[in-house]
Amino acid sequence: MKADHMTNVAVVVLDTLRKDAFDRHFDWLPGLRFENAYATANWTVPSHASLFTGQYASEVGVHAKNMTLDCGDPTLAEQLRAAGYTTRAFSANTNVTGYFDFDRGFEDFRAPKQVQHLNDDTVFDFREFSRDPGTSRPIHYLELLYAITTGDSATIPSLAALARKAIGKKVTGKHNGVEYGGLVEARRELADIEFGEQEFLFCNFMETHEPYRVPPEYRSVDEPGMTESVGGLNFGTANTEQTKQAYEDCARYLSDAYRKLFDQLRTDFEYVITLSDHGELLGEYDAWGHEHGVYPSLTHVPLTISGGGLDGDCTETVSLLDVHATVLDIANVESDSRGRTLLEEVDGRELLTEYHGLTSWSEEKLAENGYDDQIERYDRSLRGYASSSNFYGYETLDGFTTTGSEQIDDPKRQLRRLVADLDIRDVEADNEIPAAIEDQLEHLGYA
């Protein structure tokens, strides 16, 4: 049951965690499990846009063609802060930082030291300067140095950020500026916070994201290296069994590491909502990663609500949109949301999943590997349709495919009906890789 007072709630995103890996390794996690939960999209930015706004990514215009959370809709943190909540965040994901305005509404938004400058307004604005550098990398760094030393930004922190940009990857050898994915750093950061009685906490951890790196005691195979792939186009070779096992090692480590943080969170938060923003392709459909498509391995995600006496399994179809509505329900905040609260009986749903074409780095990857002629083929919208009948139908480049134990009549028509109901926001595509975060994207296997 929901508390009458303002209740502390934490939302924890275990980035890139597949549902099947969650089922194998997270049997210790208490609460109500949603067996048929779907992300709204195939990767981090659009899924978090939905999580933060309660709308589909196409409606708020935040996806592969516009990664900045610049929509007019209020964010979850903004609504909670207006209602009197203290709003905090820790994100190990470069794509979910102040650089892309995902810090909207958060009073305290933290990141690992290596990328914390992306959340600091006093540090030089690498974003605006670096959208399209137009020069070679060495010349670009000299231009940045001049701009920093002659501008109004905080010089020392800005120079430190520039140094981390220029040499950080070579010096640290770490995964996106964190040791293994963010949980180690987050436990240190959160242990120093004295949480009050009106708290909202958001976290994103990257332990199961490429490059699939774990502590030595969890490593059963050599680190496989990046899986270079866009859709079904693979650049180089990927050892299927080695890569699958490396991912499994990551999921096992994530479970143990998160269990420690979860126990820590339960002392301060009545509700802890644990979920994944998307899954991962591990050779299915001859593809790797999560840069293309709405395959079920990408969109079917884990979701568990711990607290409030909740327990058991729910087999009804739900969405990450419902997490947005549930948090607001816990906080007694009214808001428009496409989601429904998960604290009450869940009935039949029809839901969409979306893919909005190639990111700028995927386009560049295709071009660099001689697949310019494939960009148009892969750079188009695809959608999926999930219903309460344990059915999922989804578009691919080769047609419409269905999965699930039950079937429904004319699912393509049902999909078109839901798409027609969308209030899509048109955005201007930004096809440049921001130079300020290119190194971090390389760490994650994107750029």
UniProtKB/TrEMBL annotation:
It comes from the Archaea. InterPro entries: Alkaline_phosphatase_core_sf (IPR017850), GAG_Ulvan_Degrading_Sulfatases (IPR052701), Sulfatase_N (IPR000917). Pfam families: Sulfatase. Residues 30-333 form the Sulfatase N-terminal domain. This is Arylsulfatase. It comes from Halococcus saccharolyticus DSM 5350. The lineage of its organism: Archaea, Methanobacteriati, Methanobacteriota, Stenosarchaea group, Halobacteria.
